[in-house]
Each structure stands twice: as structure tokens, then as C-alpha cells.
Amino acid sequence: MLFDFSLKSSLLLIFFFHGLVFTLLLWIKGLRENNRACQWLGTFTGLCTLYITPFMLGYAGWYAGGIYRELLFYIPFQQLLLLPPVLFFYIRSLLDQSFVFRRQHLVHFIPAFVYGLYSLIVFITDQWIMGYAYFYADGKDKDFSPWYQMAGFISLIAYLIASLRVYKRYKLLSYDALSFADTVLFKWAKHFLLALMVLAGLRLLFFIINPEWAAFGKKFWYYLSFSALYYYISISGYINTIRSVTSFSIFSLPDPLPVQVITEEPATEYIAIGNDKEAIEDITEWKEKIMQLMQRERLYENPALTIADLADRLHTHSKKISQVINQGFEMNFNDFINTYRVEEVIRKIEAGEANSQTLMGIAYDAGFNSKSTFNRAFKRVKAITPKEFLEKTTKTGFKS
Predict the structure, then answer these.
(1) Can you tell me where the transmembrane regions are (predicted)?
(2) Residue-wise pLDDT tens for the chain (400 aa)?
(3) Residue 178's beta-bridge partner residues?
């Protein structure tokens, strides 16, 4: 039987071929640049392409009968227990440059392996041992069994929650360790997770509207929506293949499955424990040391300043500095440094430097590296925008 190019099969076919292309492109880029996140995303895209395959072929008439039907029923296209951990490890690799996939992580793939083994047993029993459709006597594809579809949905929700926790941890760490946190909080990671939440919502909606998951004709709009979302993920993910500059340990962040991976790399100098309540007896002394260093050496003018740089200058470790700033100044490292930068901008404005250079020029000299970060930090400190402050302080016009 030839491929029936109906409207439904043709639309899904377009997404199918684009999925294959981006799977290949992401893997090639990942191998060339040694970018593990890119490889994980390529795997995710490939699995999504397989996910829509049975419906694309179903609308093309391949499940109507004959040799196609006999073969396709035994191929586990919908890897519902493999997709969730793959997306989780993509987020881990994207946001943590020190993350290394280890043998202990294989436990996350045991359910997918068991289902693959089950599919193989079904095939061998029906085709070689029994010689007839023993398991498939009901004529329904096992991929669309209610228990499997529900198990896949629960797994997706669990790993999506775990991924959101990783992103939250990444944000906290970045603000506690980097003075340029705003520029490395990947908008793409946030958009990726939002797209997955929309996908989970669509899946739940279609579960409610039509619980008969194997009914081809009633699921087209779900699979079309799914295809559009994973197409967006593939394109955006390929464009946003930059890697995190932050390394962190998430021992305190349990995996979705009941297993603790305790053999990861120890935390690097970027690690900061902002919520550590351990008391620092000499906190007043350390506050004074930090303030004197900042005023004397004007470290805040370095747009790439990290908490490790500050710790090195004071001959201590990052955890100590993080605790002093969190508990002594009651702010994170990013806000602490930006406060100094804002005060420097104010000093320069009051000294009349706004007459000879733009406001952003002054901001860049003070250590800011983007207009949005400058505006946000300034308003947090002074409760008004830089432009409003300039107009109140000087009689010169605002130069953008």
C-alpha cells in the first residue's frame, strides 16, 4: 500500500521530516561542539518524531491492513517512559556545565527498558512462538493501552516538576554567585519548560475529552498541536545551544525516582549556599572587610565579577562570603554588587558626568552590562527609573 497523502497525513508528514532533520542537526552540532545538552535535545526531538509516527501512518492508511499493520503494531513508537527522563537530563546538562551523566543515572531509564523488553516479548511470542496474534488478539496497538498512556503522563508530570526545580535552583545559584546573573538566566530554558507545561495541559485535556486514546480520528488535533510545540522546541533549541557558565551541585534536589546520586562532581567555586542558616560569629568583621575591599578596589566595575573573585581577594572560600552577604547584608551577591554599581552611577551623575556622556555609558563604566539589568537594579535601589532620577538631579536632557 502506498502512502495516502490526505490532509491529516500530509500535515503530520511535514513535521515528521522536519523532526528527523533537526534530530540530525542537533546531534551533529552536539558532537562537533562536545555539547551534551544539544545531544539530549536531539534525542528528545527524535523521540517526539517517533511519537507522531503511528498517527501519521494511520492517516496514510498503513494500519488499514496487510503487512504494514502486522509490522507496525509491534514497533513501540511512543516511548512515553523514555521522553520524560530525556527532557530532564537535557535541562540538567543545559543549566549545569559540570553535570556528567553517570552509571547511577541509568535507573531513570529502567521503566522504558522494561516496556521495550515487554514489546519484544510480545513480538517474539506472536510471531515466532505462537505463530498467530496471541497478545494482539484484540487488534489494538499496545502503545495506546490506557495504563501505558496514563503511566507516561504521570512520568511526564514528575520529570517536569523535577526540571522546574532544577531551573529554580539554577536561578538561586546564579544570583548568589554571579554579578551578571540576569544575562545568564536562560530565557530559552524557561520557554522550553513553559512549552512542556502547555503540552502536558493539552495531553490532560484530551484525556478528559476522549479517553479512548487509540481512536485515530479523534486525536488529530492533539497530535497536530504536539507537532507544532515540539517543532518550536527543536528550532529554538537548535538556535539556543549556548551552554551555562554556572556549575552547581544539586544533592539537595532529589531525583524524581527514589534514588540519590551521590557520586557527582563536588561543587566548584561558583557554589554558594544562600539559605545556609549556620551562624558566623565574626560576621561584623567580615562585613567590614568586604565593604573596605569594594570601596578600595572598586571590584563592582568588573562586569564579569563572581563571588569566587571576591573570596580570592579576601583569602577565604565562596561559602563564607555568600553567608556574610546573605545574612549580614540580607541580599544575594548579584543584588549586593548591583547596589554598589547603582551608587557609582548616582555619584557620577551628581558629579556632572551626564553632561559629557550618555547614561548608559556611565552605567557600563560602573559595571553593568545591559540596559535592562541597569534599569531593573536602579529601580530596585532608588524606587524610580534612571531617567526619572537624572531629570530630577540635573537640568540636562536625557541622552539615550
Answers:
(1) 6-28, 40-65, 71-91, 112-135, 147-167, 188-208, 220-239
(2) 578 888 989 999 999 999 999 999 999 999 998 888 899 999 999 999 999 998 898 888 887 766 777 788 888 999 999 999 999 999 998 888 778 899 999 999 999 999 999 999 988 988 888 877 777 777 777 888 888 988 999 999 999 999 999 888 888 888 888 888 877 767 778 888 888 898 888 888 877 776 665 555 567 888 888 899 888 888 888 887 655 555 554 333 334 343 333 233 333 333 334 444 445 567 888 999 999 999 999 999 999 898 989 999 999 888 888 889 998 899 999 999 999 999 999 999 888 888 888 889 999 999 998 888 899 999 999 999 898 888 887 654 444 4
(3) 306
8 A C-beta contact, residue 87 and residue 159: yes
Nine-digit cell at 9? 497525513
* 247 occurs within a structural domain: no
pTM score, whole prediction? 0.78
**Euclidean distance between the first and final Cα of the chain, in Å?**
66
Looking up residue 372, the CATH number of its domain turns out to be: 1.10.10.60
Is 226 a member of any domain? yes
What's the CA gap between 123 and 351, in Å, rounded? 81
Question: Left (φ > 0), alpha (ψ -120 to 50) or beta: where does 19 sit?
Answer: alpha
